[in-house]
TrEMBL record:
Classification via PROSITE patterns: EF_HAND_1, TAT
Domain of life where this protein originates: Archaea
Protein name as it appears in the record: Twin-arginine translocation signal domain-containing protein
Bilayer-spanning residue ranges: none
InterPro entries: Dockerin_dom_sf, EF_Hand_1_Ca_BS, TAT_signal, TAT_signal_bac_arc
Amino acid sequence: MPGNEGHSRRSFLKLAGVSVAAAGVGAGSTYEAFAAPGETQNGWTQYESPTSKTLLGVVQTTEGPYAVGGSGDVLARRPDGWELVLDRGPTVQSNGLRAVGVTDDGRNVWFSGGSGVVGQYDVVDERLTDYSAPGGKTSTWEGIAVTGSAGSETVHLTNGSGEYLKGTKNAQGGVDWDTAIKPGGGSTATAVSFIDGTTGYICDTNGKVYETTDGGDSWSTIGIGSGGAGVALYDIAPVSPSLVFVSGGNGYIYRYDGTRWTPEKPGTNAIYSVDHDGATGLASGSGGVVYEYGADGWSEVQTPTTKAFRGCALDTSGAFPDVAVGSSGSVVERGDYTKPLPNTLAISTTSTEETGYRLVVDGAVEQGADVESADALTSNLGTPDVVTGTVGGTDATDTYSYSGEVLDFEITSGAPANVDLTLNGSPTEIKELRDRPWREVASPTGKTLYAAVQSSEGPFAVGAGGDVLARRPDGWEKVVEFGPLAKSNTLTCAGVSDDGRDVWFAGGSGVIGQYDAVDDTLTNYSAPKGKTSTWEGIAVTGTTDDDAVHLVNGSGEYLRGTRQPSGAMEWSDVVKPGGGSSAKGISFLNRSTGYIVDTNSKVYETTDGGDSWTTIGIPGGSAGLYDVDAQAEDRIVVTAGDGTLYRYNGAVWTKLYAGGKSLFAVDLQGDTGYAVGSSGALYELRENGWEADDSPVESGLRGVALSDTETIPDVAVGASGKIVERRSYVAPLTGFDAMPTDPDGDGRYEDLTGDGTFGQADAQALYDLLDDPLVQANTPAYDFNGDGTVDVSDVQKLNSWL
């Protein structure tokens, strides 16, 4: 390949046909964006930064610039400013990140740094994957380069011992690492960069530059001079084999033409970073100075700050600014962020009546040309953008473009049925965009509840004293008291058969019970094989009458039981998957494949129904593991006692920070999920990672069960019998045979009579049933004015829509 003119090595190759989806807000925390452009000097504008840590590198991606730095911080440039998307690094141990690279298609950002950390961040899916300590190497990685496209890329690393290591992504999502080699004598290899998959360069603090033409298998010294440059070299920017730039100490930038090195000294202090696309160059160094490359070579340019710059990146797409980053989180930009916002939402009506709305977005929002001047957009730094407006009459449609994710949409005045929504060209319903807050509901017990499941008849929960609770249409009911043995043994775990009919639970003194959710009958299966220790976890596979029950206990033992046609259980031999640490959680994908976690940070997998187990993680784990949920062999999530979650992609484990509160349970449902823990912690898996959700309780939550239907609530349970729910249990109301329906798709059930239409009879039905438990236990379904209660004002609201 003769050269890559027009392609900066810190930008991505502009490939024809590449289409990239919207990015979101991060992986595992709540983050803030800061726009606030400040002073401009010599074409460079200083921007407010969400970190005070030193930023040591920056690259351009399909979603804009990304920067990395101290304490594991990773920043992304959004349309409305810079945002902290990762704040503890790939291992959640705050190791500093020293280098950053990007795949040729601009999708995967790779970074490396202290204690051997290596991570990859997918800027489209907003997902982090941890590849730290490759080849067992835990020294500081000083340089990184990436060749190839996302999914099959090769990663090139250099460290402080002068070693070079490369690895290639495999089909399973892991990386196959080669053996580390030393291109030179052992001086710190500060930077590595590749032109393509075969030709690359390394520079070091001994003033030497090394070249490979076989993809990193072998290296040769090509300068600088016979004894080195005489100064430490910090960065390298190859454009082609006949055009290579290297920056170093004392203000030097060296140019290589394939034969000879030519020094240029545009400054007096160290130049830490250099980038070049074949025509335009950019370098950065101390004192807030950048160096611009033009027809006359390199020239020194002062920016609005005096902070030292440690990284810089040119934009070659025309959609993003050039960037330099450095000390104290300093960021300066040249040029504009011009990429159009990726999403559109059209709010339209054919009604002559005015309908008010409120839209909340966690990214940037731009008003379309059809938005009236009276409609308001509130955009504050560090908080979601909020839009309030109306449609109706001559104002038929309001259109908004936005980045990020819609957090909430609600109708503030008028009838929801008057409004149609179109999201990215496709019709959508209000309920798909509405926030669904959790609320505390009445509980029939004051004892701690440890687990919850979803049955065919609705949620069940189990806990201390042997209590078993069932969610009925009119609220929660205690269906078992004192447990299967009537001895008040605590029930610690629950599972449910594949058809949802059999609810199984287990706990102290070896108790095991099965509750038929349809017939409301209890069967006792306690102390199988004479085991009377506490069962900590349970999973169920199969359907009623042939369920297989999988149990783990505090001694790290696993036991399987299969129900026979007679109703009796056939129990397997007891096995220990691990060394005997308490096994807390168990999850099965099917009758063959399952997973166990224990307090020794170990995860075990079976592919033969539990007959044998192998350890699949977690390397370097230090926290006790409490729960596991698996949706596929490459989609497994584990909760830990140190307030983190682990995600497994079938090849590697990635630790995700989730606020520091112990997390006791996790449940995945399709593309979403929830984890719960101490102090009422609720974490939701959204489009862009795990994010804290508002909790209505402060006491610990121990179990969570998500529903796969709009008419059954999600539930979480915990200390002192606390129960919180999202959505309602929608069932035929007193005096009616049919289920209420939601004609306008806003998540509330205006058709109370269930006849398929909304009319006067529905308003009358609500008035007649205001005190009915079927209504009062399910306020989200019938709270039409949105004040959190159901009373006569909701009847009035319904009447106003007639």
